[in-house]
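#lab-general

N.A. 3:47 PM
ok so I finally got the sequence cleaned up, no stray characters, all 507 residues accounted for. can someone with queue access submit it? mine expired

B.Y. 3:52 PM
send it over

N.A. 3:53 PM
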Amino acid sequence: MKKLFELFSLSLVLISFTVLNTSCNKEERSENPNEYVNNWIYEKMTTFYYWNDKIPSNPNYTLASSDFFKSLIYTFDKNTNPNGDRFSVIRENYLDLLNSLGGVSSDEIGFEYVPVNISPKEATTKQYYLLVLYPKLDTDAYRKGVKRGRFIVKIDNQDITNNNYKTLISGTGSKTLTFADWVYNEKTKEYELKLSANTITIQMHKNFAEKPVYLDSVYSINNKKIGYLVYNFFATDKGDGSHEYDIELMDALQRIKSKGATEFILDLRYNGGGAVSTAIALASALVKNRSTQNLLISTEYNPLVHSVFKKEYGEGYNKEYFIDKIIDVKYDNNGKEISRSDVVTIPSLNLPRLYVLVSEWTASASELIINGLKPYMNVILIGETTVGKNVGSFAIYEESDPKNKWGMLPITFKYFNSAGKSDFAAGFSPDYEISEWEDLILKEFGDKEELFLNKALSLITGTTLKSATRIVKANTDLKAVKSSQSMKITEMYDDKRQEVIRNIMNK
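B.Y. 4:20 PM
back already:
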C-alpha cells in the first residue's frame, strides 16, 4: 500500500512540477487571484479527468476559475467531436454541489416545470407559462394543489418572462401563483386554456430534500398484474449516510412484488441519473434470473487512475456485478475497508421483460439501467430519445482548505455493459416514440389515461385502452421551451469508490 501511494504521489509531484514551472515562466501570474484554485483544478484534472491526455499543456491561469475549468475540457461538438465532454461541471461551493447530488436544493419552489412560450416570434421579451411536470412530495406546493398539468401564468401577479422567471421561482418567503387549466367547451368540442379564478399562495423551502421514489402501484388488467414505479433520481440518502432513499426504493419494489406483479413499467422520463450504487441495486431487483455472478457493468478510467487501482485492488477492481443486498462500507483514511454492514435486502422481481418510460431528460444512471439490463432481458423503451450519457464522475473537493471551497464533477470514467457495449452517446432511441409536447395536456402520474403509461399498459395487455391523447384544443400556439426548462441533468457519480478515491487524492 505504501509503495502504491508513493507511486501515485510521484505522479502528482511531476504534475505539480509542470504547473510550478509554467507559473515561473509567467511573471504576470504572480498577482493572479485565481492562481491558487486554478493550480488545484489543473492538478486534479490532469490526474483524474477521463480525457487527461487532451488537456492543454499551457492553459491561461489568469482566467476566472470556472472559465479556467472550461478551458481544460475536451469539448463536445456534434459534428467534429461527438464523443467529447458535455457533462463536466464545477461549482464555487462544494457543499452546494454535494447537496445537489442528494436532491437537496437551497431555494425550492416545490415543483418541476417546463416553460411554455406564449409570445409571438418577433417579440424580443419572451413571455412564458410554466407547465407543471410534477409537484415535489412533502412541499407546500404539493399540499396546496399545484398539480401536474396545470399552467402557472403569473407569480406574485407578475408576468413570467425570460428576464425574470429565474428570480420569480427562487428566494424565500411566499409566492402567489395564478393558474390556467384546460377546460372542455361543449359547444366547440375543443379544450381551451382558461384562467383559474383562484390563486394559491405557497411557501418556499430552504434546503429542501426531494424524495426520489414518487409513486408505486400495481394494475390488474386482463388477468395481468402490472407494477409501476415513478423514480425521479438516483440517491442513497440526502447525504447523511442513512441509506434512507435506498430503503424506501427497496420497500416500494417489495410492495409491487408482494401484490403479484409479473410485468413492470419503470418511469424514468424525468430522471437525470445520480448514484451508481443505487442504479446497481435497482437493476439487480429488476433483472431476469438474477445471479450475483453475472456482470452488470465495467468502468474504464484514464491510464494513470487505472494503473493505481489495478495494483491496489486487482484485475477486477472495475467490475460491478448484480447484488442481492445493499451493504454500507466504511473506509479509513488510507482507503482501506474497515467495516461493512447489511442495510437492506434487494427483492428479486425476476421480470420477463422491462418497459421503461423515457424522455430527452433521461440520462446517466437511468441509461445505465437500460444498457446494463439489455444483455439479460428485453428492455422496451417508450417515449423520446434519451440524453446519451455513457460516462460518469466523482466529486473532487477539499474539506479543510479555507482558500478553496470549489467543487468539481469532471468526467472520470466511461462504463460498458457485460457485452462490452457503450455506444449510445447519441442516446437510446425509443421502440415506441411518443411525446408529451404535442398537445401539452398532462394527466397525473398513475392515471391510466396518461400518455406514456397508457401506451405501456396497452402493449402489455394487448388491449387499446382509453387515452386522453390527441385532444383537439383551441390554443395551438403554445410551445414548450424544452431547451430552457428547469429540469437538471443529475451527474452519474461513482459513490462506490468516491471515498477511496478522495483518500488517495489527499495523500
